[in-house]
Every structure is written in C-alpha cells, then in structure tokens.
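We modelled the chain as a single entity of 263 amino acids. Its sequence is:
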Amino acid sequence: MKRTTFRISQMDCPSEEQMIRMKLDGMQEIRSLEFNIPERELHVVHEGSSDPILKSLDTLNLGTTVSRVEESENNPSSHDSIQRKTLWMVLGINAGFFVLELIAGLIAGSMGLVADSLDMLADSLVYGLALMAVGGTVLRKKQVARFSGYLQMSLAILGIAEVIRRFIFSDNAPDYQMMILVSVLALMGNAASLWLLQKSRSRDAHMMASMIFTANDVIMNIGVIAAASLVFITGSGIPDLLIGAFVFIVVVRGALRILKLAR
C-alpha cells in the first residue's frame, strides 16, 4: 500500500475537491482520499502505481503534480469507520432536536424556533450527504444532494411566507420562556456535535463542511435566545419574526450551495 501526495496548485475551495472526488470515484486501486485545501495537497492511499491517478487528475487541468510517494501503514477502513460513527452521532442529535424544536415552536408560536428546527433538518441532510461521501457512488451522492437541496429550499420558502403572514396579520408574542429553554438545549446539542466533529480530527471537506454548519448553528441558537429576551423586554413578537426570517434565508443559501454541488 502506498501513500502519494499530489500538489494541486488550483485547488483552493471545496468545489474543486468535489470535482476531484467525482473524477476519482470508481478507481479500484484507491483506498482513501485526504484533502488539505489550505496547502493545496491531496493525499491518496492506493495500491499499485500512482500514474493512473495522476493521468485522471491531469484531465481536470488543475495543475497537478506528484509531490512524494511513501509506504502507507494507514487503515482506510478504520478511518472511514470513525467518520461514519461520528456523523451518525451528530445526525441523531440534529434529527432529535429538529423534532423537539418544531413541536416547541408550534406550541410556543415562535417562528424563531420553527426556523431553527428547519436549520437542524438542513444539517441532518448535510450530515447524511457527508455519510454518502464516505462510501457512496457519485450518482447516489448527486441524487441525494439534489433532493436535499430542493427540500430545504421548499420548506424555507414556506417559512418565509409564514413570517410575512404573521408580520402582517398577527400581533401575538410567542412564549419567550419556551423559546429560551428549547434554544439552550439546542445550543448544548450543537456544542456536543461540534466537539464530536473536532474530535475526529478529519480534514476531509465533507467533515470540515459539517463543522462549519454546526458552528453557524451555535451562533443561530444564541440569536434565538437573544430574540426571546427582546420579546420579554418589548412584549412584541417582531424580534422572533426577524430571527426566523434570518434563519430561513440562511437555509435558502445552504440549499443553493448543495444544489450547485449536485450539478
């Protein structure tokens, strides 16, 4: 087993990584891929010569050269197993909080909680996509990504429409106590997810993207807590509607990014 490091001078964002993954998908000699985008390096654990891999990468015209080749003692299956275990755990956390926040948001009349629950659903879909990236085919990855993107987009648009309707027709303030309680619990769940992802020490883009999404969720949880505090101070539901609209817009942006990768 060999570990070849390729220098890819024009690889500077996850979109190039996605192109490379799709290009190399199906090559039987490859056992694992590890991307280091800041250093523009790709580490490939493989059997046999690295020439077929280099030839395939050259067709992308990203300026690929072989940096070094060394013997590998890594166990890719163990690496994949760790990634899958981590992603399944954070997927479970986010799916659970999606249900909790959605129910609590409907009971409390809070668009902030409903929006945050949708963001939890979006994250669950992202983690599901990351699981597919660990061991799925290119076609299946694209199909799941496309479905996830359209689902997120549809739900977010419905949410924005509901925010507008409530802004025009409703003066009722949501239950700020339930907003704070559930948001604090969600914050703890996202903090646990972020810790699990960082603990995996993976630099693969699908894992790094999961960390970015989760870190953003922590900020959104704090935003919902702040909105609930403003509801308490002002007695108005406007802060809840504003944070709800903001989170829905973030979900739309995330859906567009996923659909772009699914092309």
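As a brief sanity check on the tokenised model: The beta strands are 2-8, 30-36, 41-46, 64-71. The first helix runs from residue 14 to 24.
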